[in-house]
Write the C-alpha cells for this entry.
Amino acid sequence: MNDESVYDGLLGGDSSQWAFGTDFEDPLAGVDTTVPAGIDATELAVYCLMLGDDTLVLSQRLSEWCSRAPELEEDIALANFALDLLGQARLLLARAAAADPSIVPPLPEGSPVPAEDALAYFREAGQFRNVRMAEVPNGDFAHVVVRLLLFSIARLAVLQRLRGSADAVLAAVAAKGVKELAYHRDWAGRWFVTLALGTDESRRRLLTALEQLWPLHDELFTAHPIEKSLAAAVDPGEVRAEADAVLDQVLAVAEVERPEPIGTRGRTGRDGLHTEALSLMLAEMQVVARAHPMGLW
Amino acid sequence: MTVLERAAAVAAEVRDPEMPMLTLADLGVLRDVRVEGDVVVASITPTYSGCPAMATMRDDLVHRLTDAGFARVEVRVVLEPAWSSDWITEHGRAALRDAGLSPPGPAPTVGGPIPLLLGPTRRVLTCPLCGSDRTERVSEFGSTACKALYRCTDCREPFDHVKEI
Ligand SMILES: [Zn+2]
C-alpha cells in the first residue's frame, strides 16, 4: 500500500456516484428571506432559534427511540415524528441564520459547514433556547407518549396562529408544521388513552410519566420577552386556553385527573437555563461535527 | 419547441426517488419551470418538512437538465403554499394504483381549529391489488413519512396507502 487514501476518489468531481449527492442542500434555497419592515432581525433570529431548538432537541430524543419501541409500527411512527421535527428545525435554524448571520458561531476560515449545522453543532448548551420539556432524558414508552402529547398540543396551537405571522418564512414553516403536528398529537393522544385504560401496569406507568413531566408543562406557555415583543411571534400564553381544552379532552377520555398546576419561576430554557441532560445529549450529538469543523458530509 | 418547453418537458419527467412510478409533476412537487437568461430555474415544494428525498429530487433535476444540454440549472424551494396530497394528479393516482399503492383521499381542510382525533383514522379504501373494499389498517406510519400501511382482508396482501395531508 502507498500513501493514497482509499477515500481519495470519493470526494470532489462528479457527485452522480452518490445516491444523495454531495452538495449541501439549503432548505431555504431560492426563498426570499428578507426580514419584513418593522421586524427586529435579531429578535426574529432568536425567536426562530427558540422554536427550532425545541424541535431539534426533541427530534434527537425521539431518534434515541429508534429500534427500541415496543413494536415495529411504533418505532417507525417515532422515527417519522423525529424526521418531521428535524425538518422543521432545519428550516427554522436556516431562517434564524438568514435573519441575523451574527448569531452563527464562527468556524475556521473556509469551513464548508452550513449555517444551520453551525448552529446545531457548535453552540454550547447555554446558547440553546429550547424548553426543558424537549431535553429531559427518555424514560419508558409512557414517558415518550406523555412528552409528545404535552409538547404537540402546545406546539400545534402555536403553529396554528403562527400561520398568520408577519414573517412569510415563519408563516410557511408553520403552515407545513401544523399538518405534521396534528398527526403527532393524535398518535400521542390515542396511546395516552390506550395506556390509561389498559392494564394496571400501563396506567401506573402513564400516571408516573405524567407526574414526572408535569413540572415542565407550564414552561410551554411561559412567554420569553421576545415572544411578546416580536410582532412576527406568537405569545404561547395566548394559546393556553385552547391547549388546555384539548388536553382536558384527552384526560377525560383517559379518566385521568389533571394534576395541580405547577408554575414556572425564574429563568427558563428560553433564557438558556437547562438541565444537565442537555449538555450530555449535545456532547454525543455534536462530538463528530466538532472534531471535524472542516468536514464535508 | 421553445427552450422553455424543452426544459419543462425534461423536468416534468424526473421521478420521485421513493415512489418512482410518479414523476415530480405527478406528485405535485414541481411547482414551476422557467428560463431566466441562460439559467433554467425549477421550483419544488417539500412534501414533508423533513423529507429526505428533497436533496435527491434537486440533484436529479440538475443532472437530468444538465444531461439534456442546459448548462446552468438552479433549483429553488417554494414553501408557500404547503404541499398537499390533493396536488397528486389523476395520472399520478392511476400510476400509484398500477404499482399496487392506494392513492390518498381528499386532504383535510386546513384553516380553522384542528379537531383532536382519538379514534383510529377511518378511511374507505379500495385494495389496489384486487379491488376489494374490505381493508384494515396495520399502521398509520409506514415505510416513508407519506405512507400508512394497510392490508386487504380478501386477498390478504399488504399495501401502502399514500396519506392525506
Ligand atoms: Zn386485495
In short: The first helix of chain A runs from residue 41 to 63. Residues B 127, 129-130, 132, 152, 154-155, 157 surround zinc ion (CB under 6 Å). Chain A has a mean pLDDT of 92.
